[in-house]
Amino acid sequence: MLRQDSNDDIEDVSLFDADDDVSRRSKKSKIRHPVASFFHLFFRVSAIVVYLLCELLTSSFIACMVTIILLLSCDFWAVKNVTGRLMVGLRWWNQVDDDGRSHWVFEARKASAQGSKTSSEAESRIFWLGLITCPMIWVIFAFSALFSFKVKWLAVVVMGVVLQGANLYGYIRCKVGSRKNLTSMATNYLGKQFLQQTMAKEDQTAS
């Protein structure tokens, strides 16, 4: 067998594509859009912090209310128009056709030709964690304000639930699809849970 010593004919080949796997994992775990990731959490977390500490910071209800609504509005715009598109490749909006009818559009970025995802797993976790957790916190604030008879704060809390809940619903529609898909997913999940419970009871009875 002939052996060529020329450096031009020598090529480094990764064994079983191990180096490629390492590079792909590093890309998935790397935050590609740090500014978008920061502002994805900054406005919504700031609104929650101001709501919790407003009575300690100032005695003016109007100032607190305006500050929280401004933060919620900035969060709604940033998440809807910027962070969702950059971090997870999703976007939704409303458009009016020539007949004057309103249509809601939900889009998801298609995978590349090689089948690899364009968004990293780290950014996806940050996006969905902030998108789901904060509306749940506002729902808790709503029940707290209702049961403690803080009527003046209900408008602020409802604004937080509506704005952040709208983004959550829009991006779930982008991720899952139409309402039929949402219904079918819920039905399939409940069916699987019921089947697992039934099988577990049968196993206990048989044993």
SSE topology sketch:
Elements: H1 18-29, H2 34-57, H3 61-87, E1 90-96, E2 102-108, H4 121-147, H5 151-176, H6 179-206
Antiparallel strand pairs: 1-2
Helix pairs in contact: 2-3, 2-4, 3-5, 4-5
What does this 3D model show about the protein?
- This protein has 207 residues and is mainly alpha-helical.
- It has helices at residues 18-29, 34-57, 61-87, 121-147, 151-176, 179-206; strands at 90-96, 102-108.
- Strands 1-2 form a two-stranded antiparallel ribbon.
- Strand 1 and strand 2 (102-108) form a beta hairpin.
Biggest pleated-sheet summary: 2 strands, antiparallel
Mean pLDDT equals 78
Portion of residues within helices: 55-70%
Strand order of the largest sheet: 1-2
How many angstroms separate the termini? 66 Å
How many H/I helices?
6
Number of strands: 2
Given the helix and strand composition, which structural class is it? mainly alpha
- Using only C-alpha atoms, the radius of gyration works out to 25 Å
Question: Care to give the gist of this entry?
Answer:
This protein has 207 residues and is mainly alpha-helical. It has helices spanning 18-29, 34-57, 61-87, 121-147, 151-176, 179-206, and strands at 90-96, 102-108. It is globular and about 65 Å long.
